[in-house]
Amino acid sequence: MTDDENSRDNHEQLRICEALLFASDRPLSSIAIAEQLTEGSDVEAILLNLQKKYQNCGVNLVQVAGKWMFQTAADLAFLLRKEEEKERKLSRAAVETLSIIAYHQPVTRAEIEDIRGVGLSKGTLDVLMEATWIKPLGRRRTLGRPMTYGTTEDFLVHFGLNSVKDLPGLAELKAAGFLDNVNTSRLNFLSDIEPDEEQPDLPMDDDESSSEEQVIS
Amino acid sequence: MTDDENSRDNHEQLRICEALLFASDRPLSSIAIAEQLTEGSDVEAILLNLQKKYQNCGVNLVQVAGKWMFQTAADLAFLLRKEEEKERKLSRAAVETLSIIAYHQPVTRAEIEDIRGVGLSKGTLDVLMEATWIKPLGRRRTLGRPMTYGTTEDFLVHFGLNSVKDLPGLAELKAAGFLDNVNTSRLNFLSDIEPDEEQPDLPMDDDESSSEEQVIS
Amino acid sequence: MSDKTESENREFEMPDPRLSLRQDIEDEERLIVDIDGFEGPLDVLLALSRTQKVDLKQISILELVKQYLDFVNQARTLRLELAADYLVMAAWLAYLKSRLLLPDEESEDEISAEELAARLTYQLQRLGAIRERAAILMSRNQMGRDMFARGLPEHINITRSHTYDLSIYDFLKAYSQHKTREAVADIRIHKRDIYSMDKAFKRLSEMLGIALDWTDLEQFLPQGIEDEQLNKSAKASFFTASLEMARIGKVDLIQKQIFGPLMIRKRKGDDEND
Description:
The complex is a heterotrimer, with two copies of chain A and one copy of chain C. By secondary structure, chain A is of the alpha+beta class. Chain A is built from ten helices and five strands. In chain A, helix 1 crosses helix 3 and helix 5 packs across helix 7. Chain C is mainly alpha-helical. Helix content of chain C is 49%, strand content 7%. Chain C has helices spanning 4-11, 41-51, 61-77, 84-101, 113-139, 168-185, 197-208, 228-247, 270-273; strands at 19-21, 31-33, 164-165, 215-216, 251-255, 262-266. Chains in contact: A-B, A-C, B-C. At the A-C interface, helix 1, strand 2 and helix 5 of A face helix 2, helix 4, helix 5 and helix 6 of C. Strand 3 of chain B pairs parallel with strand 3 of chain C, so a sheet runs across the interface.
């Protein structure tokens, strides 16, 4: 292939990427995109090129939930904001519960209640699940095998996060010890803290590497 | 306004146009677009500019019935999915049947009908099977040797579950607000789900030679 | 409620608006608390700690305990119904206060007062921290509000593992709805053996002729009933029957102490009228 042909081919691959991503209202993984490209194409490089191309446009190519998608530029929010489209009205309890789940996942209902110091009213988890922001993650291998919850890809997309590792202030919370195991005996400061030796279930506990799988759902 | 400012403003108007057309769920008239731009902007000129910008891209700005919209470039139409491959919604009956199979597996067709209190229309199991969410598990050692069904690996992958035991139990559904209309005391009338482990069904046998994969469950 | 994010953001710099010093009340130091606005005792403690206008790391637990107990007392003065949670916390804080004030006795079993105070501080800080994160999270640009995805998506031939679209929510909802219907259909009330009131009335009337003086009602109960439920039923029916007989003037009833035996006697001169 001549240089000229080569660059023409590159341009073609970029166009295909562009068409795929532009047509979709969901983030696409680079693997899914690569399937549509000529074999041997460097999909990551093409995506970065495309991202650069749209850098200053009204539409940007962003990475969310470990995938790629086009969305309108954040600085145009005030112009585009649709007032009539009611944003999801979440109760204070729901907002707090959502952030506890996001930062502590996988987390059980009892742990959420412990952190908030109050029982979780019926329907709070239901509302968050209906919004497709949380999902059951599996059971903890402890007494009673309680269900744990975590956030979904939709959650990441909605808040423009590439992964749960990108949650604002995660490192500070961790450093302050606020993400340590939650003792779920109610009013736990009344009783002595039992050493929590339970095996963390499932993906995503404190080690960074495992949270990756969690993001991809 | 200096020339420089002027061109910056033009670029801004172009960006707004671009974002509006990208996010709109229908083609927009130039009048509708003009409403969102700074007064006195030459909307037609901006749109023509934008059209030119996208001329050789994977996406083009086209005019349909006097209105403007972004569309995948005609030469990339091969990327577009054929209509019949569109994502389909499952019927209510199918979703319910799937949930019963998931919670009660291994379960026969007659049992599903018994549990739902209504006959299973032809094709419901086929649809679930086609979706690769259920599979035959083997025959029950009872009169008539009816086929039993269970969920597949794909089913677990789809919902991000490790095992069917990770499905929330009744008490958890209740706590999450799903069973709102059920009086708690009545929950006693409902048995919680215990995945049937003790008595595995017979593997598919002699009379079906095809069964190799199905045995492995 | 409407500008939730904004007001929640502010909440972190200013004393909680739900705690206010009301000037129009004689005792101008009185802390008026909007209990409905709070979600549990920890929430109240957190709000109170913010009125100290110090970094959460330097909260004075003693001061906080005082404020909380004041808060509970105020609520009681106002006859506001306080949930048990609040009272449990009050009791615990009072205990903590006494422990903090008294010289600590060396004890192996008990956790030191300082340790208890530290745990409370930790809980408050943790809740405070997650609240801040919640506010930051909600103030982020949100999809569908501040930024938008393609409004006119075109179907692209991306191979997906599934052609069917089903969310876990819809899946669980379907099963729950099924269970809800089942719950309604499955109610069965089992027939129970009962000892009818008529039967009790008859037996009591007959036996009263034999008993001459005050007799414990229990004595009239039929003997040898094995079924506990039936026994209870008999007891209830005999009690009701005795009341009925007292009402129509056939017997006198007396009970000398609460939960004591119920004594019954045929009313004098009843025979003549009969």
